[in-house]
Amino acid sequence: MSSPEPIIRSKQTEKDVNGVSTQVVCTEFTNYIFVVLTQFGKIGTLISVTPDSRSNDISTPTFSTKVLLGKDEPLTHVCAKNLATFVSQEAGNRPVLLGLALKDSSIDSVKQMKEIIKSCKVW
């Protein structure tokens, strides 16, 4: 008899990004995906990344970002959209809750972090 599928699926990994230890935890809930990306071992700033239902073109939705807890800075929104948009799209346009605590938010680092998130795919 096989074991039942867990109610909440979660996956985590740790990799170096430009010499900085980076941890990712992806958890799938029925109504959203929760992704924690940290280089400090903390959840950090919590951002909601939501597909915008007002978009006229369903094939390429726009996304809204809202900082729920932490520093509300322009770079936070840029990083959140770059890191979480593909997650939402691959998960059937579900909203993403993103915990972000980064030492290095350079373009190269963000590209590497996207690949780490992909390796933790639970959706």
UniProtKB/TrEMBL annotation:
Pfam families: PAC3. One of its GO terms (biological process) is proteasome assembly. PANTHER family: PROTEASOME ASSEMBLY CHAPERONE 3. This is Proteasome (prosome, macropain) assembly chaperone 3. The lineage of its organism: Eukaryota, Metazoa, Chordata, Craniata, Vertebrata.
